[in-house]
Amino acid sequence: MRKIMTFIRFEFLKRRRVWPVGIVALLITISLAVGFGVQKHNQSVFVQDYSTQLKKRYPNENSLGRSELTSFQKSEAAYHDWFFKSVAVNVVLNGQGTREIPGFGVRLYARTASGALSDAFARTYDQYRYMRQKNITPMFPDSLVIVPVAGDLDKLSDTDKQWVMRNNPHFYVQALPFLWSLLQSNGVVALLLAFGVLLSGGQLAKELAHKRAHSHWLTLQDEPFPAQVGIQFGMMLTTMIQVVFVPLLAVTLGIGLLFGFGDGRYPVFSYQNPDGFGSKEAIMPLSQYLTNTLSLLFLLTVFLTLVMIILSMLLRNGWLTILGTILVVGLSLITPPIPGLPLTYFHLNDIVTGIAQEQAGSDALQAPAVFINLGWWCVGLLLLIILITEWRRIVHRLQRIHLASQKSPASL
Amino acid sequence: MRTLIGFEWRRLHRSGFAWGLPVLAIVLVGLFFWFSQVGVDQYRQELLNHIQSNDEILSQLIGGYRQTIADDLETADRKAEAKKDMALAVPIGDALDAQQQAVEDRSTPRYLRAVIAANTRTIAFDNALHRVLLQDHHTLTAQTKLYQTMLARGWALEDTHYTTQPVGFLVSWQSWLAQPLAVLLGVALLSTTWVTALFTNNADLMATTVQPWRRWALANWFWAVLSWLAFLTLSNAAGWLAGQWLGTPLLSGTTPWHAIVPGTGQSYWIVWVQEIGISLLWFIPMYGILLLVTTYAEKWGRQR
Amino acid sequence: MDILTIDDLSFGWRKQPVFSHAFLKIEQPGLYGLVAPNGSGKTTLLNLISSLLQPQAGKISLYGGLNTAKNVFDHVAFLQDNSVLYPYLSGREHINFVADTHHIPRTAIAPIADKLEMTSYLDKRVRHYSLGMKQRLLLAMALVVDRPLMLLDEPLNGLDPTSLIIVREALNQAKADGQTALISSHNLDELMRVTRDIFFVVDHALRFEHLAADETAEQRYAALFGVHDK
C-alpha cells in the first residue's frame, strides 16, 4: 500500500510538471461563470426589449392587450400568472382564433399560423399545471416549451421559426437550471471532454514511447506494467474529473450560493415509455435529469479514459493518442442516434430525455438500456486492455511451448 | 530546397503517415457513410411522422365539420359553410394519404406530386377561410416551386444532411471537411511529424543543418498541404465508390451533379468545389500559424 | 550460490537471432565488463537479465532463483540509458522516487550525491543537464538502492575526465563493498582500468575472457572481432 502511494505521488508530481490542471480547471470554471453572466445579461436585455415591444403594440391605455404589459411591469409572479392563463385559454381554444383575441401575448401568437404551435401550447400548459400543483416558480420571463424534435416548428416558415425561437427564450439564471442548460449543449460537453483528453491523453503513451523506456524503468522500481496501466487509468480519470466535473460542480455551487439553487422538481421535457406500449411526452423532475445526465457523463468519461489507454498502447505517441480520442469526441457530434453505438451516447440530453429513443424508434436508446450498454462497452475495452497488457506474456509462453515441442522428439 | 522537400517526404513516409492517412480516410468515410445510411432511414420515418401529424390535425378539423353538419342545433348557413370547408379539406387528406403511400412505395415523383397537391389545396383551403390555419404559405409556395422543378427535371428527393447517393454524400462529407474545427483536427494530425521533431533533439540537427531555418518549415508546410489535398482526394474517392456501390436513394431516382442543392440556389458540383476550396483555404493559413506558433514556442522553451 | 547464471539462452528479434545457446556464470563478486560491437545485444542482454525482455529459450538465475520481477527488484540495480529520465523532473525527484520505492531513507541520497559531485545541480530539471550530468544521475540512482548486483549500461558514456575519475572511484568502492557490477562499455581503455574480467558477445554467444597483465582490452577485441591496426 505504501508503495502504491509512492507510485501515485510520483504520477501526481509528473502531472503537475506537465500541466497545471488546477489552473486549467479554474479557467474553465471562470469561463462557465462568464457564460452564466452572459445569460443574466441577456435576460435583462430581453426583458427590456420585450417591454418596449409590448408598449409599442398596445399604446392605448384602454387596450385589452395591456393586461400582459401591466402584469409584466408589476412583478414576476404576476407575469407567471398571466402567462399561465394565456396558455390555458389557447389550449382550450386549440389554437383557433386566439390570434385575434387581444391581450394574449405578442410573442406567443403573432405571425404564425394559428394552429402551428398547438403542441407547444399543450406541453407548456401541462408543465405549468405541474408547477402550480407543486408550487414551483417558473423561469422568467415565461416562454413556450418548444421541442423541435417533436415537430413543433415543422409548420412554420424559416423566418417564423427563427422569430418563435428568438421570442421564446429560456434564461437559466439559477444554479441547477444553469447546470441543466450546460448539459443540454452537446458542444459544451464535447469541449469539456476535449480539454480533459488534452490534459490526460498523452501521459501513458509517453511512458511507452522510446521502446517503453519510462515504463521499463518503472517496472524495475517494482511497478509492474499492469499496475502502471491501472495507476495511469486512475490518473487520467482523475484529470478528466478535475477538468469536466469540478468546474461544472464548482460553478453550480457558486451560482447556487449567490443566486439560489433553483427547484430540483422543475419540469424537464422527456419521452417516456413506462408501460412499454410506445413512448409519449412526459415530465421529468430536474433533479432526476441532472442525476442521470451526470451519471452518463461519468460513464462516458470512463469510456474515453479506456479508449485513451488503448490508443496509448497501440500508438505509443502522446500527440496521436490525444488527437485520436478528440476525433472520437468530434465524431460523436455528427453521429445520428444509433442503438448500441457509444458515440450516440455523447448526446446526453437526447439520451436522458428519451429524444434519441424517439428519433431512432428504438428502446435500446432508453436511458437504462444505454447505461447497461455503455457499461458493457467499458467491460469490453477493459478486457481488450488486459489482452494487450498480457499479450507479450502470452506470446512468450506460446513461443516457449512451441520450442519445447520442437525439442521433445530429439530428447527422446 | 529540393533536398529538404525530399527529406520531409521521407520523414512523413517512414513515420507511417503515407499509409495511415489513406486508412484514416477510408475509416472516417466508412463511418460517415454508415451514419448517413442510418440518417436516411430516420429521415424517411420523419417524413411519415410529419405526414401523420398533419393528417391528425386535418382529421380533427374534418371531424368538427362533420359534427356541425350533423348537429340539428346548427343553422343552415353554418352547415352549408361547414360542407363547403369540408369539401376543401378532404382533398388535402387525400393528398396526404398519397404522400404516405409514395413514401412507403419509395417513389420520388409520386411523393413530389402529392406534396404539390397538398400544398396547393392547403393554400386554397386557408384562402377560403381567410386566415392561415394549417401551414405558413410562404413555406408552402417555396416548397411547391422547388418540387415542381425537381419533378420536371427528374431529380431525386434527398435529405440535405444525410444521403447515401454519391453526389449528395460527397457534398455533405466535403462540407464537414470545410468546417474550421475539422480542419483544425486535420492540421493537428498532419503536424505530428513536425511537432515531434521540433520538440526533440531532431530540432538541433535541423537547426545546424538547415539555413535559413524557415526552409525546413516551408518544406513541411508543402507536404502538409499536399497531404491534406491527398486526404481530401482519397476520402472523396472512397465516398464516391461507397455511394456508387452501396448508396440508395431516400425514395427513388438519382441526384445529378447539376441538380440544385436545396436552400442554396447552386448546383451540387459548384457547392462541392466551393467546399473543397474553403477547406484548403482554412488549412493553408491554419497550418502556417501552427508552424509559426510552435517554432516560437520551441525557441522560447530553449531559452528557459 | 552463483550471483548470475545464464543457461542456454536463445533470443532473437523476429528472424534475426541475437543470442543462440548462450551461457554465462558469475560466481564471485567484483566488476565485470560486457563488450561487443554495436547492435550485438549488450543492452538486450541486460534487459533479459533484468526480466524486461523474455528469452525464447533458456534460463536466467540470480542468486539461486529465477530472474522474476521480484528477484530482480530485490537483487539488481540497473543503470539504463538516459531516455528513462523525465526531462521535466529534477535529479532529486528521480532519486527520491527510487529511494522511496526501495524503502531506502532519503538521508542516504546526500552522501552519494556528494561522492558523485552532483549536489550543485541535483535540484535542476533534467532537461538542463549535460550528457555527463545525466550519466552521473543515473549512476546515483543505481547506487542509492544498494543492491548486490548492478547492471550498468554504458555508464562511462559522455563523461569528462573528472567525471570518469569520480565514476571509477565509485565503482571501485562498490567492488570493495562486495557488490558485483556488469558494465557494458565501448570505452575499452577506461573499462580496463576498472576490470580485467570481460564478457564478449561473439557469434550470438557469451565468451568470458580474463585479460593477462600485458594484454589490453583493445587487443583482445581486435583478435575476437577481426579489427587490425593499420
TrEMBL record, chain B:
Residues annotated as transmembrane: 16-35, 176-200, 221-242, 276-297
Keywords noted in UniProt: Membrane, Transmembrane, Transmembrane helix
UniProt superkingdom: Bacteria
Record flagged with keyword Membrane: yes
Protein name, as recorded: Uncharacterized protein
Organism: Schleiferilactobacillus shenzhenensis LY-73
Biological classification of the source: Bacteria, Bacillati, Bacillota, Bacilli, Lactobacillales
From TrEMBL, chain C:
UniProt entry keywords in alphabetical sequence: ATP-binding, Nucleotide-binding, Transport
A Pfam family recorded for this sequence: ABC_tran
Boundaries of every ABC transporter domain copy: 4-228
Gene3D superfamilies: P-loop containing nucleotide triphosphate hydrolases
Record bears the keyword Signal: no
One Gene Ontology term of the molecular function aspect: ATP hydrolysis activity
Protein's UniProt keywords contain ATP-binding: yes
InterPro entries reported for this sequence: AAA+_ATPase, ABC_transporter-like_ATP-bd, ABC_transporter-like_CS, ABC_Transporter_VariousFunc, P-loop_NTPase
Domain of life: Bacteria
Family annotation (PANTHER family): ABC TRANSPORTER ATP-BINDING PROTEIN ALBC-RELATED
Name used for this protein in its record: ABC transporter domain-containing protein
